[in-house]
Amino acid sequence: MKLYDGGRAPNPRRVRIFLAEKGIEVPLVQVDIGKLEQKGTEFSRINPLQQVPALELDDGAIITESIAICRYFEELHPEPALFGRGALGTALVEMWQRRVEFHLLQGVQYVFRHTHPAMKEMEVPQVPAWAEATRPRVLSFLRLLDRELAGRPFIAGEEFSVADITALVAVQFMKPARIDMPEGLAHLERWYNSVAARPSASA
Amino acid sequence: MKLYDGGRAPNPRRVRIFLAEKGIEVPLVQVDIGKLEQKGTEFSRINPLQQVPALELDDGAIITESIAICRYFEELHPEPALFGRGALGTALVEMWQRRVEFHLLQGVQYVFRHTHPAMKEMEVPQVPAWAEATRPRVLSFLRLLDRELAGRPFIAGEEFSVADITALVAVQFMKPARIDMPEGLAHLERWYNSVAARPSASA
Fold it and tell me: ipTM, 2 decimals?
């Protein structure tokens, strides 16, 4: 088994943090995103969508999509449960993981890709108007998260979950995207300090 | 239990098709998207993100996000399995459901929202350049799906899954989005005819 990794990019980081929380070690193969290696012929055979991460099993089967890779490991190593427990718990983790992914992580990525000079070759065409339409929605979602976190320690409830991983990676990706955290979001700040202090956050 | 539904919109349809495949009946409450009822005060208390569908349980718990609602029912009624079986099967359904959602359904929705005159009040601001950047990616993903479907009956493998539901809804939403299906995609056409003929497709 080997994991095609992509350094500091948000999606590869999600999988590494997930594996660290589970205590699982998987051999990494670095794909150099800076050199657009994920768009080369060799990696396109592994993932025709030219995105990292990708997990290659010993029989050659390929799993792409960070959350799909995480779910594979959740099935093999159920503890600690990072996708929730029971029908309602599982649904609420899925709901929050998706809310955070669509409204925060994807939003931050759009702002980054459509405004950052370093993304000119990767994101063709850049559409700055799309970044500007997205930015206020990101800020609005951060305020919603702050209100939610007033009532519970983690994004999806009482336990740390994959939704916290997506949110952590998204908040940290606001820096290269040049989005400032709004002031006065005390609950979100408390949550952030707690998840960023976990050993997995350095994975 | 009641399901806040939204008529012909893609996400409410995904849940209704899923329930039909499972043979589950849930009382529906119609939310009038045409009148922007999902953005009103009453529905915003149910889902602050102002999106349908939403499932309200008898104890008042709310689950939003179509795929989270589907997963709730999968946990309660595992057969027929629509999220895959076993670690690899589950991961591959998740992978394909996500690929189809991000590269096809979301793309078609972006084209619709950012070009259709009827969406002027709902999508503010409309960014036509974003729709135009998205359109060729949708077509490219349809070609990829066609190549994949040369080797298997359904999107994620030998069995019908939630990935087929997302893909069916996305392909049918190409019509209001005014995206023509590229010609010559025989495998995709065979797949489409087979899933659109299932009784669940009229849900």
Answer: 0.97
